[in-house]
Amino acid sequence: MERYRGVAAEAAPSACVVFSFARSLSIRNGKLPAMSDATLTRIQQWLEDHQSELLEDTRVMLRVPSVQGDPEPNAPYGAENRRALDLALEKANSWGMRTTDLEGHLGYAEFGSGERLVMALGHLDVVPVGSGWKHDPFGAEIEGDYLYARGATDDKGPTMAMFYAMRALQECWAELPCRLRMAFGCNEESGFGCVKRYAETEEPPTFGLAPDSNWPLYYAEKGIVNFTLRIAKPKGEMEIVEIQGGQRHNIVIDACHARIRVADTARPEIEEKLAGAWDKNVAWNWTENGELSIEAGGKAAHAMWPFGGDSAATRLLRFLMEISPLSTRQAYEELLAITSSSGAGLGIHGSDEPSKDLTNNLGVIKSVNGHLEMLFNVRYPVTWRWEEIRRRLESHLAGLKNEYQILGASDSPPLYFPLEHPMVKAIVEVYEVETGERLTPGVMGGGTYARAIPNTVSIGTGWQGDGEAHETNERLKVEHLYRMSRIYAHILYRLCSMPAPIQS
């Protein structure tokens, strides 16, 4: 998951159409009617009868270590992502669905006929594992009520639940009034290249769902920008020889290492400060050649909620600032400040009413050819635009001691659907029918496929007790896998029953 809330119409072309309904779910006396449709009842019963099959197919998919790898022929995101895609398409073929493979970027399965297209988009790629797992992260082991694996909640578990929901409609609804399509992406966590490829040649859905967020749905997603700062290494009595931490832009750094060269004139002062060092998550030692070797540990978390993690890079840079001699202290203070998860150290902190605060995550730090490179992932408010953020960033950096250069910025603008949008209302109503809970749609700091495909929103994937995306010991309650499939099937049934939008 990259799992917010924009206002501009251009960020969500689907927000500018007016829908009419041939049928709707009536509400009398403030209460939703009980589910009584015979076709829907058959669909739900089929899913209950095939729970063990859904669980086993999900475990098979979870055992594929589909972290992005080196490109290969027909496998632009690596051999393991290709293997996961092949598993999904082979399964669809065995169920009699029509399949299409877009050169390994993305594949989809489809059945039904007609002009209207209801589509779901899940992703089979996962983020790197990290350390500290109590189970094999690709073992798909079950302990108690939970299934443990990287991708259990983000996004293989929900994708397989949606896949089975579609299969249930195929098996139980002979008069399906539209086409149903299940898309399997392979590059959601590392750039959205898969859905960009889809958009080049394939049609947008009439209604689209991305099962990759929270319940009942997110009607808006914050803007997301990735950029790299190239910084001249601080010079003087304490210099960084090497530094390395982080795996991806969208993960809080959980381990960071550095080698530091210390001038003889500064060593007595630094040794005194080391003797009083307080951070138990930072370890250090002097090497044989007189360098200071430092290791810092932290806690990984998704970049959309950096406060939920503990950046090892921030710990290490704070350590360097605290032991630094006065001659180099300002340079290390600046490096520490720009790691702030509020963005204040970059001069870009702020908020708006719909989506609240901007967040900032330092995802990677490394030394390269005499420079430092720091890769940031910023989630910005939905009423903002990157061009203005960049102007603020450049103005702030120009006033600092170190020399900074902005490299390789890539922006994904915010997404927005109004709460009165018919698809939004339908999903909220179905979730209440299925669970008895009336929830308000949310805004998220993550990014899903919904921001890349027109007429698409992201919907929920789990409940309390399930593991957080991108964190160690990711897990999904087995019963929640089954429950998701039933809710997804009901949402699909409702959307398939709605007419195509009429533009006014």
What do these coordinates show?
With 504 residues, this protein is α+β, with helices and mostly antiparallel strands. The chain is built from 11 helices and 22 strands. Strands 1, 2, 3, 6, 7, 8, 19, 20 and 21 form a 9-stranded mixed β-sheet that branches. Strands 12-13-11-10-16-17-9-18 form an 8-stranded antiparallel β-sheet. The longest helix is centred in the last third of the chain and has 19 residues, at 478-496. The chain is elongated, with a radius of gyration of 25 Å. The two termini are 34 Å apart. Mean pLDDT is 91; it is low at 2-35.
Low-confidence stretches: 2-35
Counting DSSP H or I runs of 4 or more residues, the number of helices is 11
Q: Outline, from the CA principal axes?
A: elongated
Structural category:
alpha+beta
Tell me the span between the first and last alpha carbons. 34 Å
- Estimate percent helicity: 25-40%
- In total, the number of strands is 22
Main beta sheet = 9 strands, mixed
Strand content: 25-35%
Mean pLDDT: 91
Rg? 25 Å
Task: Write a concise keyword list for the protein shown above.
nine-stranded mixed β-sheet; elongated; 504 residues; eight-stranded antiparallel β-sheet
Show the helix and strand layout.
Layout: H1 38-49, H2 51-62, H3 79-94, E1 98-102, E2 106-112, E3 117-123, E4 141-143, E5 146-148, H4 156-172, E6 179-185, H5 193-201, E7 207-213, E8 217-221, E9 223-232, E10 238-245, E11 255-262, H6 267-275, E12 282-286, E13 292-297, H7 312-323, H8 329-337, E14 351-352, E15 356-357, E16 359-368, E17 371-380, H9 386-398, E18 404-412, E19 415-416, H10 422-435, E20 442-444, E21 456-460, E22 475-477, H11 478-496
Parallel strand pairs: 3-6, 3-7, 7-21, 8-20
Antiparallel strand pairs: 1-2, 2-6, 4-5, 5-22, 8-19, 8-21, 9-17, 9-18, 10-11, 10-16, 11-13, 12-13, 14-15, 16-17
Helix pairs in contact: 1-4, 1-11, 2-4, 4-11, 7-8, 10-11
